[in-house]
Amino acid sequence: MKKIGVLTSGGDAPGMNAAIRAIVRAGIYNNIEVMGVSRGYEGLINGEIKHMDVSSVADIIHKGGTILKTARSEQFKTEEGRKKAINVLEVFGIEGLVIIGGDGSFRGAEKLSEAGVKTIGIPGTIDNDLPYSEFTIGFDTAVNTVLDAITKIRDTSTSHEKATIIEVMGRHCGDIALYSGLAGGAESVLVPEEEFDINDVCKKLVQGKSRGKLHNIIMLAEGTSDAYELQKEIFERVGIEARVTVLGFIQRGGNPSSFDRILASKMGAYAIDALINGKSSRALGIKNNKIFDMDIAEALTMEKQFDSDTYQLTNILSI
Ligand code: ADP
């Protein structure tokens, strides 16, 4: 293997830059030329490709976002679009491709490998919704960002003796709400994986109020229920006015945590080793603090196991 490409695709995540840096540096260390593809699969189709040297990835390990930019590509979902992408790879002499992204990007990688392109997928998404890996790059940073917000909201919530509903990202996965909720001492954590009873939420609010609790944080994972509907329902049931804070895109930015930088660095270097060893169509993951690889198609068919022990713990500790 003499020349490989790297791209970031789908939603960005803090730590993607650390992964790019590791791929470029580990590639150069192993005498492999690394080409950076801008704007994900869309950039690949358009031939937005440039050589990356050692200094092209200097001073980025600590930065959020992705220096390669990211995009969503409708064209790439078509056979014709993918044919163009494969032609571009041939023209540039790129023998292997590392894709940093979420499940959609992995589906794209799977299609490319079916067409004979050597691909390695690195899980980069704040949602932590890739079922085969304990963690994805960006998740830990997002949890820390949310935790910081909870801490600040708790101050004003306490001063005004108000309840607050904090809506966080995660699409169909409640991990951000769950982990930040536990770390932030939230009174209720509502996630799509577990049905919740609005009466339990209201009971906690009423009981908390009567025992002089000054704040009440309700963590709501997007994909569970509408925050404003929840606010309305709480008011109608128990007459308590909860504030709503939708954190939004703040969760996708910021300097990656040490955990994400280390995970990204390890996975980037692992991807190079995997390609050198002739592996293809592999998804990288982490389990018990060890990086591993598995068939990308199989990884995509797995079902995410919700961490119900941690969920139960948040309920026990928030009585
Ligand atoms: P993420 O990787 O963060 O889950 P998306 O789901 O938006 O983000 O996927 C990113 C890109 O991957 C899409 O814009 C598309 O180009 C490509 N992609 C997604 N699903 C498929 C698919 N089934 N076949 C081919 N390409 C896909």
UniProtKB/TrEMBL annotation:
Stored InterPro entries: ATP_PFK, ATP_PFK_prok-type, PFKA_ATP_prok, Phosphofructokinase_dom, PKF_sf
Keyword Cell inner membrane recorded: no
Compartmental location: Cytoplasm
Domain Phosphofructokinase: 3-275
A single GO BP: canonical glycolysis
A GO molecular-function annotation: ATP binding
Biological pathway: Carbohydrate degradation; glycolysis; D-glyceraldehyde 3-phosphate and glycerone phosphate from D-glucose: step 3/4
Residues the record lists as binding ATP: 11, 72-73, 102-105
Binding-site list for Mg(2+): 103
Reaction(s) catalysed by this chain's protein: beta-D-fructose 6-phosphate + ATP = beta-D-fructose 1,6-bisphosphate + ADP + H(+)
Keywords annotated in UniProt: Allosteric enzyme, ATP-binding, Cytoplasm, Glycolysis, Kinase, Magnesium, Metal-binding, Nucleotide-binding, Transferase
SUPFAM superfamilies assigned: Phosphofructokinase
Binding residues annotated for substrate, in chain numbering: 125-127, 169-171, 222, 243
Activity control mechanisms: Allosterically activated by ADP and other diphosphonucleosides, and allosterically inhibited by phosphoenolpyruvate.
EC number(s) per entry: 2.7.1.11
Top EC category: transferase
Residues annotated as catalytic: 127
Keyword Magnesium: yes
Similarity comment: family membership: Belongs to the phosphofructokinase type A (PFKA) family. ATP-dependent PFK group I subfamily. Prokaryotic clade 'B1' sub-subfamily.
Self-association state and partner proteins as the record states: Homotetramer.
Protein name as catalogued: ATP-dependent 6-phosphofructokinase
Native source species: Anaerobacillus arseniciselenatis
Lineage of origin: Bacteria, Bacillati, Bacillota, Bacilli, Bacillales
Gene from which the chain derives: pfkA
